[in-house]
Each structure stands twice: as structure tokens, then as C-alpha cells.
Amino acid sequence: MEYLLTLTCPEGVGIVHAVAGFLVEHGCNILDNRQYSDKDRGRLFMRVHVEGPDNSLDAMRVDFVAVAAAFDMQWELHHAAERPRLLLMVSKFGHCLNDLLYRWRIGALKADIVGVVSNHPDFAPLAGSYSAPYHHLPVTSGTKAEQEARLLEIMERDRVDLVVLARYMQILSDDLCGKLAGSAINIHHSFLPSFKGAKPYHQAHARGVKLIGATAHYVSPALDEGPIIEQEVTRVDHTSGPDELAAAGRDVECLALARAVQWHCERRVLLNGDRTVVFR
């Protein structure tokens, strides 16, 4: 049986020794170990992939509490084969939605998509073609709170681990962003921090940019300011109009979002304040 241990804690002497000793004591063989020391913030980050005795997860979780307490760790221990449950959200641009659904169907996305939520009915047939339940939650200024409550009900009922905003264009309330902290990923159709808000490709064209890109980040109450997980770019030139930029942008949006979602599902992304550590 394979397990994944992820942790972060203040830097100190003996942390790696304590973790390795714990794993040896529990009959685990380390298959892969990644670690990073953030000297500026004085924190250590680790992701350890191990092979160990079957059915020992619960006992290991109980026993690791003492090790974690000694070093003030924030940690998680999971089966490596565990598949997070994803809820996708979309508005009127479906390229990222279709890309994730396709990766899921062919087994390239190590997760289970349990449904699609949208404020428009447009992509119900697409979701249906992948046998993914579709939840149409139209949003107006008067229904926003009610629909966010329904979203939370869907998440609880379907035991959702991660929400993916696959070009969902409604701004989430601060309260909902707080509840989804670290468990919701957004794709921003711009190479942050440039060209925020509406029509970023028109903004880019007006500035004569030579690179366009997309940014996948965790959702936060500050619009498009959440911790960045992945960014992707492609070259353009003076001959590219807004439509050509948008077409190229769709490709990089799909790539950046798919990588970010995959890395999150493989527990390769650890939050570091307003930044992330990504063990690729």
C-alpha cells in the first residue's frame, strides 16, 4: 500500500530525522521525498511518498500526532491512490470544462468529477455526454446568497474535496471564499498580475504585448489575488488581433488549469501564506 505524507512546520533541527524515523518504525519504504526550506519565512515543507503495510493508515495517523506536535506541524496523511472528488463550475466559455472532462474520461486526471455547476444552461448537453450531473444555478443580485447556499449543499451532499472554477465568471462572496480556502482553484484568463478584470485580451492587444498567458490560483476574497499554483504563456506578435489572442489564450488556460488541478489532486501543492510550494 502506498501513502502520501505532506507537512509544513517552522524550520528546526531534527525534523527530517524524526519523520524518517517514524516511517521506518511503521515499516514504510520511502519511494520519493521532496522538501523545501523557505529561508525568508523560516518554514519547512515536505511531501513524502512511501510504501508501507496494508491497512495501516489509521494507526499511522494516530501515531504521527506526537511527532507533529513536537515540531508544530500542519500535516496530512492519505492513501496515494485516493481520488479527490471534484465539482466543476462554468459560465459561457466551455473549453476548460471540456478539457477537464476529457482528461477525466481517459484517466489522465487522477480525480473523480462528481458534477458541474453553472449559472447558465448552455453546457448541460456537454456534461451529459460525460455522464456528469449538471446543476443550473442562475445568479442575480437578489439570488446570489441563495445560490451559494445551494452550492454548499451540493458540495456537502456529494462530498466534494475541490471546487474548480473552469471559467466561472461570477464573483464569489467573501464568506464563500473563506469557506473554500485552499479547496477551490480558479483559472484567470491573464498572466497575472497584468490585465485583471474584463476583456484582458483586448487590454493585451491595446498594449501590444508579445506574450499572453493564464494563471491558475487558489480562490481568495481578493479578486484574482489568491496564491498562484501554475502559469502558462505563449508568444504572439503585432499581427494578432483580440480574437487571435483569445484563441491562443484558450489553449494556455486549459494547460495551466489542468496542471494546477492535477498537482492539487496529487497533493503536490502546499500553501505558504499568500504563495504556494509545488513539488512537481
The backbone outline, from C-alpha atoms, is globular
**Poorly predicted parts:** none
Level of helix content?
A: 25-40%
Number of domains: 2
CATH superfamily of the largest domain: Formyl transferase, N-terminal domain
Class per helix and strand makeup:
alpha/beta
Strand order of the largest sheet: 7-6-5-8-9-10-11
- What letter string, H or E per element, gives the SSE order? EHEEHEEHEHEHEHEHEEHEE
CATH architecture of the largest domain: 3-Layer(aba) Sandwich
What CATH first level of the largest domain would be assigned? Alpha Beta
The radius of gyration is: 20 Å
- Total number of beta strands: 13
Share of β-strand residues = 25-35%
Mean pLDDT: 93
Number of helices: 8
Describe the overall structure.
This protein has helices at residues 15-25, 57-71, 95-105, 124-129, 144-157, 174-179, 200-207, 242-265; strands at residues 2-10, 29-38, 43-51, 74-79, 85-90, 112-118, 134-136, 162-165, 184-188, 211-218, 228-235, 269-272, 275-278. Helix content is 34%, strand content 30%. It folds into 2 domains: 2-79, ACT domain (Alpha-Beta Plaits, 2-Layer Sandwich); 85-278, Rossmann fold. The two termini are 22 Å apart. The mean pLDDT is 93. α3 runs parallel beside α8 (242-265) and α7 (200-207) packs across α8 (242-265). It is an alpha/beta fold. Strands 7-6-5-8-9-10-11 form a 7-stranded mixed beta sheet. It has 8 helices and 13 strands.
